[in-house]
Each structure stands twice: as structure tokens, then as C-alpha cells.
Amino acid sequence: SLRDHDRSVSYHRRALELSLSIHGRHAPQTSRDYFSLARALLYVGLAEDAIEHFEHALEIEVELNGEEHERCATVHVNLGEAYEHAEDYTRAKTHYAHALRIDKHIFGDEHENVARDLYRVGNLLGLKGDTVSAIATLNRALTVTEHTLGRDHSRARKIRRKLTDLSSEQP
Questions:
Q1: What's the pLDDT band for 171 if we cut at 50, 70, 90?
Q2: CA dist 14 to 9, 17, 28, 113, Å?
Q3: Of 70, 111, 155, 168, which sits most exposed with the smallest number of CB within 10 A?
Q4: CA dihedral 24, 26, 29, 33 (to 10 degrees)
Q5: H/E/C letters for each residue in 32-73?
Q6: In terms of Cα–Cα distance, which of 31, 18, 39 is closest to 62?
Q7: Entry pTM
């Protein structure tokens, strides 16, 4: 229920306050609490507030781990999602592409995180009306997903449904 989600936001706000007072601004726990609050805010539809908190988490992660760290890629994916919800597709694509670059650097081309990032980029291209590029990107996401997670995995089924929807939109 909405009340439960509001409670969740309140809980995460309090956790962040505690982390800031106990650990300070530049601690791993503080980053995780910014991230958790941002996810809760995004879930209740407060994309702009979520973006602000994801940005704080990213700043801390870059400071602690450098820009090419898996945690940074995760935050970039979530920033992309928040910008997508805010209908700022240019910034969403920038963050998805950044996550994809980091994940490819860390894991190579055949990893479930790379498939996730490709799916996000492909889905966004579809939202922007670039159906041809969306289909090509989603086909690559499907190939990587099937290779890493299996043909019958829920992510593979989700990508196939999206490809079917996009194909039916083409003239």
C-alpha cells in the first residue's frame, strides 16, 4: 500500500540521517543509504528526488572506488532509470551507456550485467522511436542473456516480449 511505501521512504531517510551522523558524508554505508533512499523515492514516483540521492551515492562511490567500479555501474543504471521516469531520455541514455561501458570493462561482453545494460539502452531507444536501433540492441541483449542466464530465464522472456512488441510497431 502507499502508506507502507511512505513508511519505507521515512525509514530510509532516518537511516541516511544516522549514517551521516555516525559515518560522515564519505563512507560506504552512507553511499548505500543514499542509494536505498533513492530507490524508495523512485518507487513512490519521486524521480527528481531520487536523482538527487543517486547523484550523492555516485559521488561517494567514485571517491571511494574510482569511476570504473561495479558499484558505480549499478548507480549509473539506477540514475538512468530515474531520468527515464523523469522523461529526460538524453540523460537516461548517458547513464545507461556509462554503466554499459563500465560493465564491459569489468566483465567482458558476455555477462548478465552487460545484458541488463543493453536491455535498458534498447528499451530507451524504443521509447524514443528509434525502433531499428532498439531491435538491434535488444537482440544483442537477448543473445547475452540467453548465453549467461539461459533461454528460459525470466529476463530472456521479457526481452523477447519487448522485441515482439517493437516488431509489431514497424511498418
A1: low
A2: 9, 5, 17, 31
A3: 168
A4: 90
A5: HHHHHHHHHHHHCCCHHHHHHHHHHHHHHHHHHHCCCCHHHH
A6: 31
A7: 0.91
